[in-house]
Amino acid sequence: MKQFKYFISTILLLTVLTINAQTTDETQIRKAINGYIVGTSYNYPDSILSAFMPGAQMFLDKKGQPLFVMTVEKYASGVAKSEPGKFNGRVTNILSIDQFEGIASAKLEVLIPGLNKRFIDLLLLKKLEDGWKIISKTAASEISDRNTEKVLLILSSATRQGDSDLTAGNSFSEVGIAYHGYQKAGYHVDIVTPLGGEAPLAYINPSDSFQLECLYNFDFMYALKNTKKPSDLNPDDYKIVQFTGGSAPIFDLPQNPDIQQIAMHVYEKNNGVIAAVCHGTAAIVNLKTSDGKYLVDGKNVNGYPDSHERKDLPHYEQYPFILETVLKERGGNFKHSKVGTPHMEVDGRLVTGQNFQSSKMVTEKSVEVYKKTKQD
Questions:
Q1: Which of 6, 107, 217, 257 would you label with 335, given CA atoms 20 to 30 Å apart?
Q2: DSSP designation for 266
Q3: pTM for the full predicted model
Q4: Rounded Cα distance, 303 and 343, in Å
């Protein structure tokens, strides 16, 4: 018995050490990449040089040449000609990182306003004696109207419904529709959960062609596996926040102060849009404006109606509150349509939808509302 306990303890210790090592590597990899990002966006050649292995080569495109090769030192010398510390408009987002032992690759999206181009950088990294370094880079571009503005999708971290053994997750189709819809509209999309890391998923149907396409989209699945924590975010970056539905949001999002603060910052400080779909509307019931009033007070709102709930199923007993009831108690003018019908309510910069069938219209309307607000 003692040997068994010793064996289990050893396994647990090795697991913890492995996880810590992976976390340290991930942190160092991101540190190197961020050094490159900061250096290229704010004209710091030393930051670029510290991110790369000395002599590292860049394989780039240049008009009239099949391949243009440049050392990182030459690249950094070009950056040194610009004013250090001044933002040059170059916005870079990490799309994915793939790590194995002492090697890694990273995919970055680079947007430069005015060029109408979207660049993709591919970085190859290796763990050296002095830490992780970028050992080579290649890049390509496409004509794109993608802008530098960002949208934030807020998902739940809950994996269980209340105190029960019933599993919980975020609606895969709703997240996919919103993520790709905002991308198509020209926005970069970040995903945040209260705990960060892997987002629990629900209602995945690989027989659905759209969902199957989402499942094979590496960047999308990477974003779901590596969601940001609230502390990772700068709320000033976002113009729209959207709460998607599923069986999980009602169990952690309404009570999370960090999530609530981010949403209201975007709404009040950034003059942005708050959107919610289906049971994701549960996340807005406790949102309050700076004057202390509930966000939904006096507004037309929508969400998953109580009359549409399957009250005979076990999950209904786990709900901490009834969505429609609380929205009404908070002063919301709750409107809905019959079961399975898309329905959306728009009141100022608050956009709410009834069910997953409403996801597309909520995403498109949120973009429309933001653009009109920005124009006005």
A1: 257
A2: I
A3: 0.90
A4: 9
